[in-house]
Amino acid sequence: xxxxxxxxxxxxxxxxxxxxxxxxxxxxxxxxxxxxxxxxxxxxxxxxxxxxxxxxxxxxxxxxxxxxxxxxxxxxxxxxxxxxxxxxxxxxxxxxxxxxxxxxxxxxxxxxxxxxxxxxxxxxxxxxxxxxxxxxxxxxxxxxxxxxxxxxxxxxxxxxxxxxxxxxxxxxxxxxxxxxxxxxxxxxxxxxxxxxxxxxxxxxxxxxxxxxxxxxxxxxxxxxxxxxxxxxxxxxxxxxxxxxxxxxxxxxxxxxxxxxxxxxxxxxxxxxxxxxxxxxxxxxxxxxxxxxxxxxxxxxxxxxxxxxxxxxxxxxxxxxxxxxxxxxxxxxxxxxxxxxxxxxxxxxxxxxxxxxxxxxxxxxxxxxxxxxxxxxxxxxxxxxxxxxxxxxxxxxxxxxxxxxxxxxxxxxxx
Length: 414
Hints:
alpha+beta, 22 strands, 33% strand, 18-stranded mixed sheet, single chain, disordered N terminus
């Protein structure tokens, strides 16, 4: 391009803030004008392609598909590090495990690393910046932060609550930290809820934790490892097709250990006991899977729940903060379809209504067996999808099987 017609230059001048001294008559050097327009066109093309790559990579379900967008970027005959002088007011940075784009008041640069891995992305150290991966298990979503080099979380409970905010933060049901193992375990898991409180553990979170570890440590095939949690030892097993089977251990049924102040009525446990919640008498069974659960299949006047008709936001908090639950409680509202098929909605302690709760699904099957409503192998339908739950008779352990998937990689300023 030797020269651009004055009419075309005027068009670009009207649509950008790039100086064009040539058009203003301040210089007769047409090269200044041409170079200015070239820089504008380069920026426009680069931003368009890179934005497409950012969106594609964040949504791509596999590394192969993610690299497709990168190849489009490389196809512009640009090097892996591009910079050109520009006059722009703001500073914008797009970060992605597959590339980084920065636009400042004086330059634009894009870097595409030769070797890309989640581990290398999360290993980068930048002051005031937290790198993370967002996972979801049946819609129960979590921010995963690589904390394997420290026994203290990288962020505070207040920061976690802000990051979990779905309007002003990243949006999640909690923040999970893989940490060094304790008492001979491979790893330790800690979690902050979306309100900043710390539960003993989380069933869906454990599956996301397990998938996160396989990414970080580049593990392949079926394998298992041990995790120390506030609820005790948890052993997840990575299976095919993205599913994770987790041995959740034995349910705790002794009333004082759940804990609940309701009187035990069956071998030290609270089974189908009456609970007055805001004037309505509910039949409840109390189970702990390392965290407390109150499971109900109906009230005294409505013995068979239609869970889709519940106003969960109204009734859930009344259960959670009921005086008979000194540590508060998670609450499961359950509808029985058959002896092996249950439908459940959950109000989670510290998180509210969520699309899934792994420990809640486990507690639901235990409660259903204790009340004679279902067998030991059940499919539990949650708003986010089904979980397979088995309460094994031979060792009293409860096993949960379900998916866990990456949503996106990201970085956030703290």
